[in-house]
Amino acid sequence: MKPSELRDVTDSCRIRIDKEGKWYYEDQEIVNPLVLLTFCNALQKDEDGRYRIVFQSEVCYVEVEDTPFVVASIRGDQETELLVLLNTGEVHKLDPETLSIGEHNVMYCLLPDGMKVRFSRAAYYLLALMMEENEHGDIVLTIGDKSYKIPPSVCPGQE
């Protein structure tokens, strides 16, 4: 269905996602797993970079505080590969080349589809335990026999 054929119901749906990946309807947390799964599966990013839920012939734009999905935990081992477990229950292979650190030392990575996800504090700590400083003073994550440099924190006013 073309975007012009969708009925915009944003004013009545009032859905938002906080920085921890929790979904809310009118400031009440949405906890029903089937509702969350339906919303997650219907979530899209439009051509302007805004998130929206498209369901049947309706569209609801969603307020997203940071990223809609959050890395809840890390699985696997450094000898072979690391996996990221999302707050939705999905599991993806971590591509360490997509790791970045944003404002307030928040860690991010990209999923295979290019979606940016934020690491929860717990997942970030698990990953940090696997990082080390190399002889050049860089922070690196080693998986198998390859080391990946973690870019330094990006702070406003510092490039």
Give a short synopsis of this structure.
This is DUF1285 domain-containing protein. The chain has helices at residues 10-13, 33-42, 121-128, and strands spanning 7-8, 15-17, 23-25, 28-29, 43-45, 51-55, 58-61, 63-64, 70-77, 81-86, 91-93, 100-101, 107-110, 116-119, 131-133, 139-143, 146-149.
Give an account of the 3D structure:
It is a single chain. With 159 residues, the chain is mainly beta. The protein has two domains: 3-64, duf1285 like fold; 70-149, Roll (duf1285 protein fold). The chain is 14% helix and 40% strand. It contains three helices and 17 strands. The strands form four sheets. The protein has a six-stranded mixed beta sheet with strand order 11-10-9-14-13-12. β10 (81-86) and β11 (91-93) form a beta hairpin. The longest helix is centred in the N-terminal third of the chain and has 10 residues, at 33-42. The chain starts with 6 loop residues before the first strand and ends in a 10-residue tail after the last strand. Residues 11-67 form the DUF1285 domain. This is DUF1285 domain-containing protein. It holds the Pfam family DUF1285_N.
Descriptive keywords:
duf1285 protein fold; duf1285 like fold; six-stranded mixed sheet; 159 residues; mainly beta; 17 strands; 40% strand; elongated
